[in-house]
Design goal:
about 450 residues, alpha/beta, two-stranded antiparallel sheet, 12 strands, globular
Length: about 450
């Protein structure tokens, strides 16, 4: 294991300064795009960079001999019977379908399972895991993700907001809280018959007159907040049109497809290359748009998905502090593979400051809502204690001198066979639902009842 030092006191004196040294009104970033994928950990995707001499040497040549990245693919975890199992490269394991993990469990990533993994390891009793959770990809095996990791900035201390599943973490991405909800429950199952009612970043942006929009492929996460976010929600096809026309708003959130033939979220047992290809398409549209010159694109994941990561997750400030482990909303999740992609990104850089999803909210709040770059001055800009205390995820961006040259390339378009009898369906009524929590909303009609359209909203070509 090689431990990164890019976030140390020495590296904090950033060569060329930080965008946060400017006032928000002087900042060159006018468009912030956030793409949130599903269920992959840092070490599972990027841990192998810590032993990649080509990557490390490129970093040392720019940032000094102490450059590193905190990753590991050399870990050992014990099964409940005491058997020791090592982490392993998925593509060398003899699995006929290493892109999906067919024949293995979907690794455990619930509230209780996450705590079993934190305290007892990734094969602990109650984790829900088998050996698939210990697999990892090596540099180049996910070619587009490898390319952007080398070209732009990797965050090696970016954690899921909660040590829990998809919905609560996505709720933190939109609102810096989950309302105390720990599960993937739809609002009407936990006392919110018309959707979650607490304030979101969308409410703050609307009140300040800042243009903002959420684009979705098939099922909109904004529907968890009821009909009130319908006005800022658009099909993904509109994103490509708006990017090409140079009419994207100041704040853009993107999601992948969560179900059926349009499934591109990378949630097991989906093909991770399908998600990679969608991310490339989203980024390519942004790079080729007029917005790229003054834009920043964050690629992150909602949570770790049960896959191994060697860094014990920290605690952050929260509106719901508790000394009870089972009710501790301060407890962040394991690290997720987050990249900052912008003409203002430092090439081959590692940002090792502690972040979670609220750190991206904090960057948005600084740029558009009057928040201080760091610290807690002022009122009216924060949603909860989480974003009020959060580190600003824009810290490593350069204040000037954009490097505009970047070719997103074209990743492998191949899709591996589905796992056994796992159905591929595009909409409710076409057969058994695939294994995704958002599919519950199709079964009970939640999306339609809130006025949202469902379907495949990707462009046809």
């Amino acid at each position: 294991m090689i431990t990164g030092t890019a976030g140390s006191a020495e590296a904090a004196r950033l060569r060329g300064g930080s965008i946060l040294d400017l006032s928000a009104s002087q900042a060159p970033i006018d468009t912030i795009v956030v793409l949130m994928m599903e269920n992959r950990s840092f070490d599972h995707y990027l841990g192998s960079l810590a032993a990649d001499e080509t990557y490390l040497e490129a970093g040392r040549s720019r940032y000094g001999r102490r450059f590193g990245i905190d990753g590991s693919t050399d870990e050992v975890y014990a099964k409940p019977d005491g058997t020791q199992v090592s982490t392993y490269p998925l593509l060398d394991a003899g699995d006929p379908n290493p892109w999906r993990g067919c024949g293995f469990n979907d690794p455990g990533h619930g509230w209780t399972q996450g705590r079993r993994e934190r305290d007892g390891g990734f094969l602990a009793q109650g984790s829900g895991n088998d050996e698939f959770a210990l697999g990892f990809y090596r540099p180049g095996e996910l070619s587009f993700y490898d390319a952007i990791s080398r070209r732009f900035t990797v965050c090696d201390r970016y954690h899921a907001s909660l040590l829990g599943p998809t919905f609560p973490n996505r709720e933190y991405m939109h609102s810096a809280q989950s309302g105390g909800v720990k599960t993937n429950a739809f609002p009407n199952a936990v006392g919110y018959p018309t959707g979650f009612t607490w304030p979101t970043i969308w409410d703050r942006l609307a009140a300040a007159g800042v243009p903002a929009r959420y684009y979705y492929v098939d099922l909109p996460v904004t529907a968890l907040f009821g009909a009130r976010l319908n006005s800022i929600t658009s099909p993904a096809a509109n994103y490509f049109e708006d990017a090409a026309a140079g009419t994207l708003p100041n704040v853009v959130f993107l999601d992948p497809g969560f179900i059926g033939e349009t499934r591109t979220d990378e949630h097991p047992h989906g093909d991770v290359r399908d998600g990679q290809r969608l991310a490339q398409q989203y980024l390519k549209a942004f790079v080729e748009s007029p917005h790229w010159e003054h834009g920043a694109f964050f690629l992150t994941y909602d949570e770790w998905g049960g896959f191994f990561d060697h860094v014990r997750p920290p605690r952050f400030h929260d509106d719901r502090p508790s000394s009870n482990n089972d009710d501790d909303f301060r407890q962040a999740g394991f690290r997720v593979p987050t990249r900052i992609i912008s003409p203002y990104s430092r090439q081959n850089f590692v940002d090792s400051r502690p972040y979670d999803h609220a750190s991206i909210l904090r960057f948005i709040e600084w740029r558009f809502l009057g928040a201080p770059a760091e610290g807690r001055r002022g009122t009216g800009w924060s949603l909860t204690a989480r974003d009020r205390y959060a580190k600003n995820a824009g810290w490593s961006l350069l204040p000037s001198g954009p490097d505009l040259e970047f070719d997103p390339g074209t990743p492998d378009p191949a899709t591996s066979p589905i796992c056994g009898a796992e159905p591929l369906v595009a909409a409710r009524g076409a057969g058994p639902m695939p294994e995704h929590d958002l599919a519950q909303g199709l079964a009970n009609g939640w999306f339609e009842s809130m006025g949202y359209q469902i379907g495949n909203w990707l462009p046809s070509s």
